[in-house]
From TrEMBL:
InterPro entries: CBS_dom, CBS_dom_sf, CBS_domain-containing. The keyword Amino-acid biosynthesis applies. Residues 6-62, 132-192, 207-261 form the CBS domain. The keyword Metal-binding does not apply. This is CBS domain protein. SMART domains: CBS. It comes from the Archaea. GO terms for biological process: methionine biosynthetic process.
Amino acid sequence: MQVKDIMVAPPTIDKSAKISNALGIMEKKNTRRLLVMHNGEVTGILTMRGLAKELGTKKRTKPASSLPVVTAVTDNYTFVKPATKFAVAAKILKEKGGVLLVSENEKDVLGWITPNELIGAFDFGGQANDIMFGKTIITINSSERLVHARYLMLENNIGRIPVMEDGKLVGIISERDVAVAFQEFKDHVPDNHQEAQIKTLLVADVMTRNPLTAKPTTPAEKIVNCIVHKNIGIVPIVDDSEKLVGIITRRSLLLAIPTLD
């Protein structure tokens, strides 16, 4: 299998567009990434994590509607040829992260490959406990401040965190939750009140409650189907006593795909 067989058309935005427009496109297209272009050339990649980082920084007190996309763009992409083998593509994404831009000349983009395309094209066997992250699970309490959730995401390079109350899983907070919350906050709270009021934003206010969970013995393919086709970014794994014992994310699935040495 080659990347040309699984690539998809990337959603795009111009670098001069505003961050609020980018969030709207991401919501409409149900995506966490946009390919940023200008005058037909690639400028970079805009991610939901980048937006959460940019909107949450103290130096950005202006409304999201006034901030250009270019302030949050990253260069985390790699050009690959259409004939690049599946295993090679998986290895590149494992090592470099980001996305793969499919092009013959490193200018005209034919499509792109994200972890979702690789995961959706691979036949996973086994059970949840074969592919889950279980040794160190980063969690957060629902009573924590939203700025702390943002810090954990950026510090650990993760997009979603299980939310706990009294040792039990009660929800998930995502980088999208953080970005949207900060957008609304900065659009409605005056500059001179933001530093004090931002401390009142709590994880419980924006998290998603009652997340989909699975058992350690749940077939891996069933979980993969939810992540790929229902766009669920994380599936917490709980035991019979509902104790959190692991998580499955796109990252853990990507790492489970065999690659060439």
